[in-house]
Fold these 4 entries.
Entry 1:
Amino acid sequence: MALLIILGGASLPGLSTLDNALLNLVLEAKSPATGAIHAVSPDQPVGQVLDQHGIVTPGWSWLALDGLLVAGALFLTVAMPSLGTVLTSLTVALGCAALVMAQALLAVYQNLWLPLGTVTLFLLAGLVIMLFWMQPYREIHLLRSNACQARLHLARNLLQQGQTDEARIALTDCPEHPEKLGLLYDIGIQQERKRQYDSAVHTFTRILTHSRQYRDVKDRLQTLAQLVSGAPVPVGGSFEATRTLVMPDQVVSKPTLGRYEIERELGRGAMGVVYLGKDPKIARTVAVKTLSYDQFETSRLEDLKERFFREAEAAGRLSHPDIVTVYDVGEEADLAFIAMDYADGKPLSAFGKPKSLLQVRVVLELIARVAEALDYAHGQKVIHRDIKPGNIIYNRQSDVLKITDFGIAKLADDSRTRTGSVMGSPLYMSPEQLKGQKVTGASDIYSLGVTLYKLISGETPYQGDTLANLTYQILNKRPKSIREYCPDLPDSVVRLINKSLQREPSKRFASASAMAEALRRAAARESTREVS
């Protein structure tokens, strides 16, 4: 409308009506009281009337007129939707009055004529048009606002459920404002913790397109770009047992597995890495053991998951002071994990070297506690299958002992046996376990006997330079007598060890509790011997 007036204002009918009326008033004000001046005729050129009365139209009048028209158009289309109808109507009314007053005063006192009536009519007509348009605009704006609020609420709920990608998609059509940017930032942080580094880069880049200085997004984006480009940190689904979740740069959030924040690495095994984690909801420190899917064949992956979760569930049913408690089990895109009680101490393997052996009485008492815990587990239909010094944690200061890795050994043994590999620790495996036969509680008794042998002598009953040689000895040879390493060892302890290492399961202790009783008696005799 403004452009139409600018391009063809002179030929548009009716636009000069207000100017002619105002010119008549000006001429009457400038004429004597006799009334010699007559009204301007619609057919009479305005320029001729102005010349007759010495009123001049300045050369810059067209520029002022066009500028006012453009300014009025911008005000009505841009400012009015945000100001509202009442404030806009008042502003337009005051503006029109100001234009009329300015036009009249310039003509009367300065003999300058500016055809501002055209601008005044434009503002009034534009106001009427905008008033009709504002009603549907308000409804549309309200619908958009409600839709945006609904999307923000949906995105917030999806983020709380851990669905970061869905939360980001829900924010797509929302206008950029602080609440949306805050949600996007939280989504990026969650993607960092879930090790979805590519997605986090995309989210933080989206924030920077709208706010170049938003919080610490630049620093995070720079660090993430380095990680994605080749840092030794798992990205997406490429976690390996030799890799770590621990972040080298503190700018990036600590990764999480499930609800557990990963603090640092505790150790590594054949299948994955064990981390020190923290449950932020209850401030509980846990050990998080991971099982990398990349270490197994794709064809076996579903069976692997099923066995892992079934065994983890079985371990979770155990509740014994000398068995590590399993709190949670979960699955990520590239690995499974078990969160268990963090046992602060050293594995008994640290006391299995000739120069760091514990007293025989102490060893007997510790193994008795392990046997009692195993008897409880066997009563719950759970067989450990990987008893060895490295899986028994002991804190000498607090005298706390914990058996770890329940259930994981069976999973590893079953899955790897099918591919021709041997999982676990062959030095501590029972003959029936090496032959792939049915494993019962007697197998744990055998492994515990080898553990006892190791902690007393610093050596194992069988030694071989190859796995085949070691397996042959365990299946066909008698174990080396512990007297070769400990000549002064009491006969009762020697008999106890020999009984637990019998090749036939039926010749070993009838149960782990029977072994525990024998160990207690031997420990009592050893204590008496030490005193005497």
Entry 2:
Amino acid sequence: MKRWNGWGDEKNNFGFELTKTSQDYIENILGKSSPLPEITLDEAIAKVPESRAPHHKLINTDAEVRLRHCRGQSVPDWLATHSGDFGTFPDGVAFPETTIDVQELLQFAKQKNLVIIPYGGGTSVCGHINPDEDERPIITVALSKMNTLIHFDKESQIATFGAGTLGPDVEKQLAQHGYTLGHFPQSWELSTVGGWVASRSSGQQSLRYGRIEKMFAGGTIETLQNTLEIPTFPASSAGPDIREMILGSEGRMGIITEVKLRVTKIAEQEDFYVAFFPNWQVGLHATREIVQSGVQLSMMRLSNEVETASHLKLAGHDTAVKYLEKYLKLRGIAKNVASSNGNGKTMFTFGITGSKAQCKSALKITKQFIRQHKGVYIGTALGKHWQHSRFRSPYLRQGFWDTGIVVDTMETCLDWSAVPNAVKGMESDIANALTTTPTLDNAVAEKIHVFTHLSHFYGQGCSVYTTYLFRMDKDYDKTMARWLKLKSAGAEAIVKHGGTISHQHGVGKDHAPYLAAEKGELGIKAITELCQLFDPEQQMNPGKLV
């Protein structure tokens, strides 16, 4: 069973505890920290109010079930579930098994004037699934029982899945036929195909397989008006693409029940590699040239100097890292310091997937680019470590939490020309967000540890992914206030530098205030009226997106 107030399975902590070295490293940067007291599961269940839901055979009103479906995985969600200040609970949770069940639920909602919140894996970090206070009963529709491969058109390479199918189950069921979807967001273990479509997600190997919009061929969406069937075509010039209305719709227009996905054969070979560039500027230039050259890599990731230093320090392999540092120094690449000065080495992780001949050719070309930019290629050892731990970051968040440290991220996507200043601006604004100035001569700054990597690459630009760590305050309300300042600083920096408010996490409630800067007044009006068309009474996930 999933943890009720954190990430992962309750029976497997996946190495939540930080090593002594890691704790000392973060304490040296941020200062001493202490965790806040936490509510127990029994205490949390006792806080669930009496349900207002009308009786229906598919709706479960059990207090613990409602508790487990009331929040996602954002910092406010963690603060709520650990403190006991939950806000609003759903009045019931429905577990449909078929599209017909969903149709029945929506008709029931229409008759009884219910609010409906679609729920996939519950991995949202933007408030997508959180109920707002409403006079109407609120029903969360969990799609976890709609989790199988319904049909596979091998000739057309289109697989139809129930929208509640988790990432590992997608790959397991496709592998039996020799195929893969290749969509691996960091939430892959716990997120669903329907959630990927609804939030326009991106997987770690999008350079080869594309984002979810490339994979989404069509499907079935149940709305309060009727069923929307999106047929599959390789391409079409017949007016606007209806798929685009559903991609990123976040449950505002209906519930996705079946997803038709474009899949590919499992590759003959796949490996991940690491190289180091002498500094961030060189790394930026090199990776831009690599992606714009069209070399067939499956993923690229460039960590800036602070992230590189932090990851090597937090890896937990002190002896191996010591030898690596000596080797790189001999090759002319200096040891990093834990501050952002633009001069430390940067780590470049990349993957190659395909036939043996394709992989050999791509590796040869990439190594040439690395040499041309005075980088040092070190092979597959660290690449294998990345592959093994590629979904581990959300688990480490728990380890930091247990020591009184909160971890969060801001992510965007920008044109190449805007990237350098955007990275500087985002990091600087977040780092200084908790600086107070009682007098001009007496500034007090709560230290923030901030670092960035580029995680998805395009010819036009790339995704910027910034992580920040900060200490919990004396209580949950004060900690929430700290987060609000940091989140606002990062979001406003993104808007200021012309980035999208979200490259892969969606909008939900947390990003909604910044959407107008991206879409414009007329664009927001168009999205709003589209939601109104499908949901005139605002029963479908109200308050999200717009």
Entry 3:
Amino acid sequence: MLDEFVSLPCVAYFSMEIALRNEIPTYAGGLGVLAGDTLRSAADLRLPLVGVTLVSRAGYFRQEIGADGQQIEREATWDPSRWAQPLDAKVAVRIEDRPVWVNAWLYVIESRLGGRAPVLLLDTDLPENRAEDRDITHHLYGGDDAYRLKQEMVLGFGGVRILRALGFEISAYHMNEGHSALLGVELMRRFAYPADDVRPGEALYDLPRVRDLCRFTTHTPVEAGHDRFPYELVKRLFASSVYGYNNHEVPRAGEPGMEHGPIEFGTLTELAGADSLNMTRLALSVSDFVNGVAKRHAEVSAKMYPGYQVRAITNGVHPITWSAQSFRELYDRWIPGWCHEPELLARVHGIADADILAAHTKAKDALIAKVQARTGTALDPQAAILCFARRMTAYKRPEMLFTDIERLKAIARQHPLQIVLAGKAHPHDEEGKRLIARLHAHARELAGSVAVAYLPEHDLDLALLLVSGADVWLNTPLPPLEASGTSGMKAAFNGVPSLSVLDGWWVEGCIEGVTGWAASDAESLYEKLERIVLPLYYETADGRHGWARLMKSVIGTNAAYFNSQRMMRRYATEAYLR
């Protein structure tokens, strides 16, 4: 079953969440979607990557919206046996000084280009484990600090061990955000020097060897996005599986999960911070290659973490996954090979304007039908649709468009517009949930002037409908808190221009009037809509050829560059082949 994947050295790609397909809710948002695109492009390019994540049997959550606009969370359970194959290997991780057994399911990503990428889904729901331990891999980002730390122990410690047990030869470990940073501790434990060989004042661990194996991609400058755990909790959960030398404890030889002994407490605090176990700091300390996910994000991260070199590899999105069927067929006909070499999309200007507009009309009609089915709101196919869809949290500023309701009504009287919204708030993000309720209140204020629809359950299928069916894509983060953002890249594959705040990837992707437009605040957003964007959309003098030319500029400039094929080629040459 695994022979084709273990025959050659490969890169182990660790991520707490990976979006594999719509029926498998092992993702919460952009981080997981990016991880899925990473592995899909690895399969396309036949790069030897193996994904490692948690099975998350209860998923993140299914979102419903109540009559008052309140988010309602429902469990998103799934059965891994429907989509993945169980593997024979089983390893143990010591948690609170007892063995917690871990096995894995195998899911294989199949590329349309013939390649395959394996993904291991770690699972503790085994009869050998206590009930409380069987639950560890159930809820993505669920529970309290103790639950989260247990998950990260299973991912970091258990992930490295299961790869060894299955026979993988790992040439590098790539941490997609800091959740998996404990893999560095596991490698240090493996590469510890025998106690008899260590003289006073010398290191116990071969940290340079560990650093040579580890790569780390940081994804957020938002403080809440970096996991921290109090050391009292760490001591309780890690117990003798990590601590020992400074406490004169002796590792228990032969116990599950004890390969080469514990890690000294002082070493852990040096690597991860003296005040708490900072998973980002730990990942930085054990990696010799660190990158941000956009040029500006790398600059911001370097200031956040002085002393570390932070490179920039700007994110990209998977070409086939994020192109609507009508655009896939169009590109296949006019630009053969585009899905393997998306840079060929620079040739899009040779496609007839009418064909570009027709492909968009099909995608827009599909979005309009979904809005009607889910919300009962009837949208006008001739009127411009503005879309805003992302995780609902304060720094994304989803209310910017609604800052001045009367101004928005006045713009709509001159140039009709419609608004489609989507996005989940984390169950513990009360402000995010209040934002969703306020967006519904704004929709009621605009009734009769501007049609506004909020689509619940923002999943992969809905995301594709949104990024392809919109006429204009909106993004309004508070700089510099948007590390990258990828929704506008997805829109670009469908010829949809962005009207966005200059942050994250848009600093690199915005060519004013060519790929979209930059906005700095609500006033500039309204000004651009009223004087530039909507007049261009509604122009009739040349049969809307101006808008078709804009769409082709978006495809030929941004889709041709901001794709995961280019991103993975850069990871391969700059991070993996070192």
Entry 4:
Amino acid sequence: MEHLLIGLVVTIGIATIINVYLKKLDIPTVIGYIVTGFAIAQIFHFADTSKETLAHLAEFGIVFLMFTIGLEFSISQMRSMKKEVFVYGALQVILSGLLFTFLAFTFFDITVKNAIVIGMALSLSSTAIVLKILNENGDIHTGYGRVVLGILLFQDLAVIPMLLMISIFTSTNASVGELLLETVISAAIVFVILFVVGKYFIERFFDWVTSSESEEIFLASVILTVIAASVLAEQFGFSYSLGAFLAGMTIAETKYRYRIEADLVPFRDILLGIFFVTIGMQINLDIVSDFIFTILGLLLAMMLIKALVLFLVMRLFMQNRSAIKSALALMQVGEFALAIFALANSYKIISDQTNQIMIVTIVLSMILTPFILKNIKFLADLFFAEPVGLRERALVSTGYKDHIIICGYGPVGKMLVERFKKNNVLYVILEHDVKLVDEAIASGEENIFLANAAQKSVLEHFDIKKSLAIFSAVNNPHQVRLICENINSFGADINSVVTVKNKSQEESIADLNITHVLNRREAVTDILAKQICAFKKVE
């Protein structure tokens, strides 16, 4: 234990020094932590027990990351992401996994079982790195960010059958049917427990905790919730991170989601740092020197194949630019693949040498990822230049006065435009989705602007103080909150109408100065019709 504590002190010290210098060069802290881990592994020789303890501690970084991601996506929102998770995610994992399996079996002297394990593991990407960078640069709420999140969620779910597959390959007692039945029953129990607790208990529990008026007790109760959900999932054979994600989703339905997220972010980032340190510690210099060309060849082929498969699949569902961004974001192999290889190696499904080569290759792909994500717009421009012709006039305001501002051009936004046109009401539409803006302008809509209403400067630019009203018709709960905060900052005299999906979203903006909050479960159309009659007509 003493050696472990000394190692932790030295690790944190080195990580701090390295990251201070790297940050000045605008290099992500993830790289600093991985470099620290590599340096520590060369300087100190941790005992196996110390490495295992550090790995367990680091795993909670992913746990808290998945929990905070779960806070962003409530159960109702997950229902709206069915396509991203179960269509895009399934296609990516299955097609990539089968292709890698075929290539591994065809070009390397390994058995079919070995090829399947390697192929399916390589289909997984890095949840920890990708979501951390997307959260930092704000891309998690973009169109491609939503797709990436959905695919990563499916990959996390896919880890379960992959681990089960290894058990099937090595089991001499239980039949395949018994193992599958046991997994299905366990999954049902975990989902029922977490969602029942979330619906009938969790908010009352936090109400009771906050009655103590102690920040310390509140934070302790949050950590208890995360760890309890993670342990519950692990006890039934699933990953800690899946349990944490489900716990985050249940809390996302409560009024405490934003407070909890703010409290946990620093704690989460520290633990994630330790996780990336352990990744760096797995780089074996002997393996690198002996198999450098094999590793580089595998790295290049692996990342290009993953990117190509995902791009070809996604371009069937979205514009090429979003498809290439999604492909670039997920072209690495992730931390769960390391866990699968470690388990397969312990069961002698793959050799020690193969395991070490794959570990180094995967870690190198993870090291490249932050640089790819930080320059993803530039890289996307190399393949598909961002269209600007149609949007040139959508970037400049025409100086409206006594107008209605519509935030979002989804179904509700389009309904508003139709009604405003019929009533001859002057309006402007603010939409940050490039594709929607281009389509609207191409169809003859002249009053749509490429702008993000979640930025206060945008609302100032479109003269919110001179407007008759502002409507928020945005689907994303995070964006709704930001827009409402911006509206609130302009004072109480702004006539504002905000549509929400459910009671939870309504409560999340209850503390802000919004004139009308319309739950979409109500007769929104009728309410809007009455509101429109009160607006001034265009002269």
